[in-house]
Amino acid sequence: MQTKVFLKESEIPKQWYNLAADLPTPLQPPLGPDGKPVSPDMLAPVFPMNLIEQEVSQNRWITIPEGILDLLLRWRPTPLHRARFLEKALDTPARIYYKNESVSPAGSHKPNTAVAQAWYNKQFGIKKLATETGAGQWGSALAFACALIGLECKVFMVRISFEQKPLRKVMMQTWGATCIPSPSPETKAGRDVLAKNPDTPGSLGIAISEAVEAAVTDTTGQTRYALGSVLNHVLLHQTVIGLEAKKQLKLFGEKKVDIVIGCAGGGSNFAGLSFPFTNDKIHGAKIEIIPVEPTSCPTLTKGPFIYDHGDIAKMTPLLPMYSLGHSFVPAAIHAGGLRYHGMAPLVSQGVVEGLFKPMAIPQNECFSAAMLFARTEGIIVAPETSHAVAAVIRKAKEAKEEGKEKVILFNLSGHGLMDLYGYDLFVQGKLVDHELHQDEIDAALAELKGLPRPSLAKTGKW
Ligand SMILES: Cc1ncc(COP(=O)(O)O)c(C=O)c1O
User: Tens digits of per-residue pLDDT, 161-181?
Assistant: First the structure.
């Protein structure tokens, strides 16, 4: 029985897939502070124009420039594995497959967009990138990309992760980047938060404000901001994952997939794997597509679909997305990359439409799933990825109860070799599950009163 399938280097996808072209109910535009749609020019101090054009593109297929293909070929195509040993342990009739994005140099899917963003910035004449990072995966991916391309890189790392995962900082430094804990005294956004709450664990929403501020206040005009998730162009760059997986499933002899699963922080690895399959679903295929989030940050399962800012200092435009409120600071769980108050507009619109059915899982169940995965398949997954593994195990058990041979595909978005502190606490029985209560959500959402509301229109087909 085959265990994994590789593609030849020549089989790497040559185009990215843009779901915006196929969404049954179109995406609603980002809005400025005046409630009017933002124009590309308004984003120019933050992003280079070539990426802004991609952000608003409605083209279904976008050609990947040769220069980016060259960079991606350092580790792509990535293998698709059949999780035979997990299947055996679960005694399930389901066939489980995983796309292994942990083989990238930084250890996750994040370099897929990091090399593309760094490349486009360099083409535009930019010298330095500023960014935020949660668990450190995105910061190290951008540091890696900037080292290859020759850009300076500054990373604001959410303080709790900075403390939990100090070696991520060393990875960033090794690739030549600067990494500081957020909130920091270096920016106005950081100083404001520290003045109110000096002991805050930090959040992605705070770190984004700091990185955007660092970019737009560089008077030389040579710094831009890079985001590791949420935005359309970031999700676009990740679609190489699903496009490769489709070819590889065929090589395994699979004619269809029943369930596609990815963990969802800002939505990029979930989108990267699932969007090419979402296209099939829109055209009639029967596929369950599941974004998985932590119960302590249940954006899709408990948040409303609203217009909200992507960051605490309201520096980003208002995005149409599921959100727990831009001032929401999630509990300090070990899946730092899933501690984001919002969700990508493309993923959010897919949930409104009914194309995606989100699920929330507490962190102890996730770590327990990750332990089983490590002891069967061998890979120690990132705490973020453990959410996908836990959902896969739930679905594989369901298949057993129903006696159905389901084909389940999930994204192994990263390894957890820099996240062993969380595993250590789990082994010692010291990990706490955080259930978020409605009154906490209501308190963060109260700040959004008066903001415009996006339409909840959908076709009603799913
Ligand atoms: C390994 C891994 N998986 C998933 C995520 C969540 O991000 P996204 O939803 O953008 O894929 C992160 C974010 O840091 C991550 O590091």
Answer: 899 889 999 999 999 999 999
Whole-model pTM: value is: 0.97
C-alpha 32/C-alpha 38 separation (Å) is 5
How far is Cα 328 from Cα 447, in angstroms, rounded to an integer? Answer: 10
Report the alpha-carbon distance of residue 380 to residue 177 in Å, rounded.
26
Q: Does domain 4-9+63-107+233-446 have CATH number 3.50.50.60?
A: no
Ligand 1 atom 14, closest CA: 337
Q: Is the CB of 317 under 6 A from ligand 1?
A: no
Domain ranges (residues) in the chain? 4-9+63-107+233-446
How many Å apart are CA 257 and CA 204, to the nearest integer? 34
In this structure, the number of other CB atoms found within 10 A of the CB of residue 196 comes to 8
Which of 104, 108, 231 has most ligand 1 atoms within 8 Å of its beta carbon, as the pocket-test mutant? Answer: 108
Indicate whether residue 269 lines ligand 1 (CB < 6 A). Answer: yes
CA of 94 to the centre of ligand 1 (A): 26
DSSP annotation of 338: G
Q: Which of 158, 239, 268, 356 to mutate to test the pocket of ligand 1 (most atoms within 8 A of CB)?
A: 268
Q: How far is the CA of 228 from the centre of ligand 1 (A)?
A: 9
Q: What pLDDT digit, counting tens, does each position of 5-17 carry?
A: 999 999 999 999 9
Is residue 349 within 8 A of residue 322, CB to CB? The reply is: no
Dmax over Cα atoms in the chain, in whole Å?
Answer: 64
